[in-house]
Predict the structure of Glycerol-3-phosphate dehydrogenase [NAD(+)].
Amino acid sequence: MSAQSTAPSTPDVTKDFSDLEISSTVTTPAATRPSSPIPAALPPSPLASGKHKICVIGSGSWGSALAKIAAENAWKRNDEFHSEVRMWVREKIVNGKPLTHIINRTHLNSRYLPDIKLPKNLVATPHLKDVVKDATLIVFVVPHQFLHTVLGELRKPGVLHPQARAISAIKGVEVNGTDIETFASLIEGKVGTPCSALSGANIALEVAMGQFCETTIGCPSHEDSLLWSAVFHAPTFRVNAVEDVNGVSLGGALKNIVALAAGFVDGLGLGGNTKAAILRIGLSEMTEFCLEFFEGSQRETFSNESAGIADLITTCYGGRNRKCAEEFAKTGQPFDVIEKKLLNGQKLQGTATAEEVHNFLRARKRTHAYPLFEKVYQISYEGLPPKALVQGL
Ligand SMILES: NC(=O)c1ccc[n+]([C@@H]2O[C@H](COP(=O)([O-])OP(=O)(O)OC[C@H]3O[C@@H](n4cnc5c(N)ncnc54)[C@H](O)[C@@H]3O)[C@@H](O)[C@H]2O)c1
Ligand SMILES: O=P(O)(O)OC[C@H](O)CO
């Protein structure tokens, strides 16, 4: 696979599919569907239908936004994908009704992505085994603290298609003592599917609203890059594929630590110069951390890709980690209280990553090499005052 391959162009998916009468078993003949431009030939599906089947495990704000894109592309490229895209919804009663029923009847995820019309071929499904049945392309996008529970279900014999491929859009890392692992690697190890990574400057609501943005996919093979580009690329969601799975994964994880620092800066009322300094130092620590602990990762993933510099910028100016850290610096309330107060059920990821990275660096005796990461941990967990953030950087 070329180091930098750009997805085949796909038609404008910003069209509204809401008028489509799509049942859960879609039978509309392809002839009435908007035809795709000449698609790159995708690797063949192992299913008798000759089509790939996509499913999405996760239905939070990002899970729903990504599932929307995947379902729209599956509909457009119905000659290559089953139209139905199942999305795992951890069942919850919302206003007296199961969330899956609300989504399948109104095509709105009123709990996690309100006001965004979801395509009718996106089917909310409460049971994991039904979601992944016959799926050849599995998107993992649950908040990272819940991934192990999900994998425990999926690794049971016969649950996943033996030739399924996966991609992780989860931002975080798995740490055990002196070992650190990306979620793409963890998924591959637990369920045996080749796993790519997707990460970029992708605040979910802006993506779901069709505002132009980019993302990076890190793929272990050329076939994976073709498949995942076809699943996700859209004129307002530009996919760039690279081979650096680790770099793409670490970019999305580590930027959340720096975003906390950016929030502290905002909470302290400091200006753009200080935030710019924090971003520069943060990008440097992100890059050096990945190069030090993940052999083969690429510096360019951080300097040139959406998964690096762009995601850092968007998160440090508009993300939830920044927002909660600002509140922390202003009020001193614990992060779990702030998460419940500000995020309306969504999950903060940066504080867990700050702790996991601290524990890993301490085990490796390398905390001194990453002063910004260490300061964020000490402020978040050890009572260091936020104003100490910039001291000694
Ligand atoms: N929200 C964004 O803007 C955004 C953008 C890019 C990447 N991400 C990343 O995507 C991943 C998923 O985040 P999100 O925004 O979709 O979720 P979210 O933050 O909206 O969290 C809500 C989700 O958590 C699930 N959940 C809550 N408790 C659970 C439990 N006990 N077990 C299993 N699931 C539970 C809910 O069912 C819901 O699907 C995260 O790693 C996040 O960093 C988020
Ligand atoms: O809201 P955050 O801080 O979790 O960031 C959201 C996305 O990861 C930005 O790319």
In short: The chain has two domains: 46-245, 248-388. Residues 1-39 have pLDDT under 50 and may be disordered. The domain at 46-245 is CATH 3.40.50.720 (Rossmann fold).
